[in-house]
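Re: the 387-residue chain
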Amino acid sequence: MGGHVMLPLENLSLDVPNGEIVLGHDKDMSTLQDDVFHEVKPIIRSALDGHNVCILAFGQTGTGNTYTMEGTNDNLGVVPRAIQELFSHASQDSSSTYSFSISMLEVYMGSLRDLLAPRQHLFRSTECNTTCNLSILATKSGAVEVEGLTDVAMLDIKKANQCLTRITIKRSGGVTEEVSKLWLVDLGGSERLLKTGASGLTMDEGKAINLSLSALGDVIAALRRKRSHVPYRNSKLTQILSDSLGGCSKVLMVVHISPSKDDVGETICSLGFAKRARLIESCRELSEDLKMLKQKRLSKLDKEICDTEHELKDLDAEIRSAKFSLEERKKVSPSVCQALCDEKGSPRSSLVVGHIDATHSPQATENAKIRVSHGSVPHFMSPTECS
């Protein structure tokens, strides 16, 4: 696959045979961690406001995923800076009380590993040395929880400098308590196995990572097309992030690419993945005024539906009454016709003497009237002018 990578100052674009991929923000290799966190900082504030937030680091192995999320002791990454930001905002907000707890886990070979659980000494180095095969549960409210996952209260910033992290934020300051999640996820390296030439356990690990990323791609495609069914359960990764990917949650993906021409194929795949993720439109929370207006309109529509149903019932009763009356008239009509025929008389009866055909001429009509007036008296007995 041909093409070349360009890194302009404002937009990141990649010329490919099928078109141009354009993303909103880009940083080159000389970008400082401060500049990256400046782009991440607004979405962390959303987590404090009650939204579920997910920050994903995605890209080819060796492009800086782990460095962006964790950083070093001298140059902190997104995870420790995010924790600092949470504590800083909580200390400045006197109207609410915040409590933070942290969990660290890893999706390894299709299983969940609790990284804060006590380690066990095992004879085989290839076996899991932390709690594995944790169960994922869904609460009645739709939140996703991991059964048995260690949840440690965050009292000191230094306790969380690295790892795949979930921060649970509880905010209380009114009648109810708001609970939100902040996920800081390093998705791991993505590359083709044929290119890496891995074998054995390393190849199996690469396959598991690619399967998780493929499942995440299916979820992104379903969310982008607004399908009724989103395949969250196809992977442990997507299942545990299900309440922080769709709905009214907020997601930020930091994509890493390599400037090397030898990696242009992986670069195109990474940017295509980011482009599909960027097309997802999550639902926006309505203001209080819009919520009240929406409720009023729904109440009005409910009342109109009830009134229409009552009208339909009345019309149905009238239709049934009309049908019953019509059936009764059909039963009575044969006897009525017979009575009318008997009242007028049959055509052979002597009463039918005034029957005149409308097709006769005026003269014939006059003669017929004369015959009717004389009746059946013979002509010689008819009175004359002299008599």
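Residues 288-344 form the longest helix (57 residues).
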